[in-house]
Amino acid sequence: MEETVDGPSAEAGRCLEHGKRLLYFCKVEKLRVCSKCVIVGSHRGHPVASVEEALSELKELLSACAKELESKSLEHSLRLEEINRNVITTKEEVEALQRQVGDDFAALRSVLDAEEKALMEQITTEGQGTLEELSRLKMECLQRLEDLRTLAEPLHTALQTDNLSEVLKVLNISSDGTCFSCGPVNEPIVRFKGEKFHGPLQYKVWKKMFQVIQTVAEPFTFDPLTAHPHLQVSINHRSVTPRHEALPVGYADCRFDTCLCVLGSEPLSSGKHYWEVNVRNKSKWDLGVANISIPRHGDLIYKPNRGIWCLMLRDGCHYEACDDSDIELEIQRKPGRIGIYVDYEGGEILFLDAETMQTLYVFRASFTEQLLPLYSPCIEEKGTPGDQQLTIFKLNL
Fold it and tell me: CA 29 to CA 34: how far, in whole Å?
């Protein structure tokens, strides 16, 4: 670099103060200087270098800066590409989800519309039939009233006369039953039987909607052969309770011997599955899904790279998703029942508050082997045995 000055000396590359050529470069003030400036002048004691050396060093610095800028540019270019890919992926995912939601609601609306139409037609048919029968009975009754009025006229006339012959004549006619020829009214009056359309209509329709709902709470069970000796599985295999004392069970390759865990009985290798677990007022539990090949002996590490996707509760209020790095979840409402949803082909595991259907956490993965539900009620706590249990919810239809 060279000091910017006016005048012929500067243009000739000479020092304005000493008139000598500017052959050196002051590294402190970043200026070209002459030899006298370096020896006795204002730049005495400053580190200097020849202009050629300084130019080489400065170019190296510029080259490093250029490489750094190039590296940062490449980094931002790659970031921009990723952003653009995510834009496209997001649009595609949004459109796919909108189509799925539209199809799902259309299927539900189709059931509702069909049920409503069929019920309306039944009510209309039943009501119309009743009204037609009542109309027939009404016309019949009106005709009988007219006939009775016709028969009653001579009687009223005879009651107004003093002619014995006329009275006897009318009385003879009446005594032979002519005036009662219309007969008694024995035919029952029909009524609209609307009670057969009463009852829990919405519930009845809701049950019919399960014909089109593809994913509902499945009645999964615990596999007692995998249960740790301090876990007791109920007779129906839908509840598990921690025990202070070990059960008299034998060693088995499939049984956990260190972690207080039990696996589900139903392997998942395709499709979409959903089940719910009652956690009640428990202050600690572990719930998740695991590869069928996870070790049963020794400690378990709840990590996706170890084939386990898990949500856990500690101290009654601390919820944690055991992802690649543990993630503490902010959950305001304490769920009494946890829903677990697995989309095998879609590579998703969702944990939900089953009472509000709010999503608590989502794992994304690519599954390569069968999966099994994983449960741990953790160690026995104070309280009644019922409060210690984990129970798989069964939807009764």
Answer: 14
Q: Report yes or no on 87 lying in a domain.
A: no
Asked whether the whole model's pTM tops 0.90, one would answer no
Rounded to 5, what percent of the chain is helix, strand, coil? 40, 20, 40
**How are strands ordered across the β-sheet holding 24-26?**
31-33, 24-26, 48-50
Rounded Cα distance, 394 and 126, in Å: 38
Establish if 123 belongs to a structural domain: yes
For 153-215, give the DSSP string. HHHHHHHT---HHHHHHHHHHHHTTGGGTT----SPPP---GGGG-S-HHHHHHHHHTTT---
Instruction: Output the domain CATH number for residue 382.
Output: 2.60.120.920
Residues 324 and 229 placed together within one structural domain of the fold: yes
Q: Is it the case that residue 172 has pLDDT exceeding 80?
A: no
- Amino acid code (one letter) for 379: I
Q: Which domain holds residue 174?
A: 114-209
Phi-psi region of 248 (alpha: psi -120 to 50; beta: other; left: phi over 0): beta
Contact 345, 366 (CB under 8 A): no
Whose CA is closest to 54, among 35, 31, 38, 36? 31
The stretch 128-147 carries a mean pLDDT of 90
CA distance 73 to 81: 12
pLDDT confidence of residue 105: 87
Q: Which of 185, 209, 233 is the last residue of a domain?
A: 209
- The rounded radius of gyration (Å) of the Cα atoms in the chain is 47
Tell me the pLDDT tens digit for each residue of 229-286.
999 999 999 999 999 889 998 888 999 999 999 999 999 999 999 999 999 888 999 9
Q: Where residue 25 sits, what CATH number does that domain have?
A: 3.30.160
